[in-house]
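Module 6 notes. Inverse folding takes a fixed backbone as the condition and produces residue identities as the prediction. Think of it as a translation problem where the source language is geometry and the target language is the twenty amino acids. Below is one complete input and output pair. Work through it position by position during the lab.
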């Protein structure tokens, strides 16, 4: 079983997240993608962070009916800062026979050297680094801090594979996604502008019914 793990604040989840996950499932032939809303993100100064249960509920609504999508409450229930290395250890322990693929946008991944125990990440899971629409990724290289631990492995229909010394893969690929961010959604809501199908309708209704971000 090839299991994708998609971590994020999801404040709120938007169609860019959903589209990216759908494309990655197809491109990398994953069996499932599990969304993992973070409790307290270590790298974000969020004064507009919605309640963790509400962010969880919005992800649930967004993925409802999509059989290849799932959600984990692991980080939310921990009730402390969410570090990817701890989450990966948890999933590895829980699903010892699954092949794990942590999915992350290149905008976030380019600062991987600031993550807790970042050298250990690539012993625990494969990584899929996606080009995020609207963010430039001129640099085809891996971040300097991890570069020497990988060797270029192969390229296959616009998917670049790097192999870590642990033999786990780092996969870099472009997606035809949607240029949208959660900050943009929060701004639109604050200024009472229409969300223009940037978030699933069920999520839009939930935000409005619960008066989130207003
Ligand atoms: P914010 O605007 O509040 O910073 P965000 O839109 O970046 O939020 P996150 O929940 O922080 O959303 O993102 C979770 C993951 O999804 C990150 O790895 C990020 O790079 C990726 N991501 C976010 N938006 C998109 C998008 N439109 N297309 C592809 N990947 C995305």
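Target side of the pair, the amino acids:
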């Amino acid at each position: 079983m090839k299991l994708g793990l998609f971590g994020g604040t999801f404040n709120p989840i938007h169609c860019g997240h959903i589209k990216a996950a759908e494309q990655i499932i197809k491109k990398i032939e994953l069996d499932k993608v599990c969304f993992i809303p973070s409790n307290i993100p270590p790298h974000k100064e969020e004064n507009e962070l919605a309640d963790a249960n509400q962010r969880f509920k919005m992800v649930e609504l967004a993925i409802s009916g999509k059989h290849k999508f799932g959600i984990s409450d692991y980080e939310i229930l921990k009730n402390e800062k969410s570090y990817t290395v701890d989450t990966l250890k948890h999933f590895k322990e829980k699903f010892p026979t699954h092949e794990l693929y942590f999915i992350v946008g290149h905008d976030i991944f380019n600062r991987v050297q600031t993550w807790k125990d970042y050298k250990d990440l690539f012993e625990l899971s494969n990584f899929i680094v996606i080009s995020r629409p609207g963010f430039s990724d001129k640099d085809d290289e891996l971040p300097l801090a991890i570069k020497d631990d990988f060797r270029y492995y192969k390229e296959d229909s616009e998917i670049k594979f790097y192999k870590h010394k642990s033999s786990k893969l780092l996969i870099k690929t472009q997606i035809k996604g949607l240029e949208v961010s959660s900050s943009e959604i929060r701004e639109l809501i604050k200024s009472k502008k229409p969300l223009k199908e940037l978030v699933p309708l069920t999520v839009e209704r939930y935000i409005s019914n619960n008066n989130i971000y207003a």
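Reference fact for the lab report: The longest strand covers residues 2-8.
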